[in-house]
Design a protein that fits this description.
This protein is of the alpha+beta class. It has helices spanning 87-92, 103-115, 118-128, and strands at 18-22, 30-32, 35-38, 47-51, 57-62, 98-101. Strands 2-3-1-4-5-6 form a six-stranded antiparallel beta sheet, covered by helices on one side. Helix 2 (103-115) packs antiparallel against helix 3.
Length: 129
């Protein structure tokens, strides 16, 4: 056994993750248990569920530049909603930022994505606060 094999390198992990990608109804590639899903990680992915090799789950929801849950139904550009004081911070932020949330918030956001009912989004936002 070589000292310099890939298994002995510091910082490398032998973990396998199962990632599920969720999107808005009408933009899906597949439907999984009534929830629209995507096959590839792209701009239309709004939520992710990651199951690690140790069976732990990680729930992620996409944020807009003002750090609120992303609303793909908004008729206004997400950047127009930010206060003037946050202008510099929001210009430097990316639109692809995801936030880790609890399972209840994640389920409420998935209901919003599958039904397009804005009240589910508001309920998910209340769970974060």
């Amino acid at each position: 056994m070589s000292i310099f094999s890939n298994n002995n390198v510091f910082g490398t992990k032998n973990t396998r993750e199962n990632v599920e990608l969720y999107t808005m109804a009408g933009e899906e590639d597949d439907i999984n248990h009534g929830i629209p899903t995507r096959n590839n990680d792209d701009d239309k992915v709004y939520a992710k569920k990651i199951q690690r090799s140790d069976a732990s789950l990680k729930y992620l929801i996409r944020l807009d530049p003002s750090a609120k849950l992303f609303n793909p139904l908004s008729i206004y550009d997400q950047t127009d909603k930010r206060p003037v004081t946050e202008f510099l911070n929001s210009v430097c932020r990316t639109n692809k930022k995801f936030k880790e949330v609890n399972s209840k918030t994640f389920e409420l956001y998935l209901k919003f994505l599958s039904t397009k009912n804005i009240s589910w989004l508001h309920n998910a936002e209340r769970e974060i606060l």
